[in-house]
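Could someone model zinc ion with this protein?
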Amino acid sequence: MLICSFLNPDGPRPGIVEGDDLYVLEGSMFDQQARRGDKIGLASQARLLPPVMPGKIICLGLNYADHAREQDTGVPPEPLIFLKPPSAVIGPDQTIELLPDMGKVEHETELGVVIGRQGRMIPQEEALKYVLGYTCGNDVSARDYQFKDGQWARAKSFDTFCPLGPWINTDLDPSDLAITCRVNGETRQDSRTSQMIFGVPFLIEYISRVMTLLPGDVILTGTPAGVSPIQPGDVVEVEVEGVGVLRNPVSMRVE
Ligand code: ZN
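Reply:
Sure, complex below.
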């Protein structure tokens, strides 16, 4: 099932996408009883919103060996986690906004894991039962600030620096999916999730020993090699096999 969120005249609504048909999702997307309601229209003509508004976004640094090499750091002996704030989230086709003094800003294509039920101390054998589904994420990063600050909070947290979408696929095996990024149609990142150093079940066990995972929380599982700068006027497309394409234009914010 593909779960989205879309803007209805009466406000944001969860939906179900089948082909290009968009249906209302009756009930909560986190409820097993959730079901398909009335047909609303065509998904391609709907104004899609972020498929979920996470309470927290837990991110992995350097979880692909090839990306660790290109950043000139070693492979971490255990997962390196950091947070992005929910206020950074935008949906499909929304604009990634740069500021004039920001320096180098880069895209990071990532597999997003959407948590479906609350859990703490989750063993990896049980981990996938806590997952609602998978989406595409772009961990936009202001690289100059990242290296200057040491702490990554500023570099990763600007408004619009966490595109998510276009929807959540609830029937997907995350272990070996093609993951790519294109800028203006040109491929910049091209890898597979099987290249992750720490896989999804291990990450859920590791993170849930630190913090309770709640429905709607999103884990961004790290990016492969090929990160590159983005400029105003660019269009960034992040694609995960089995999910779809998350497309976002880039512009300079006029203050
Ligand atoms: Zn990242």
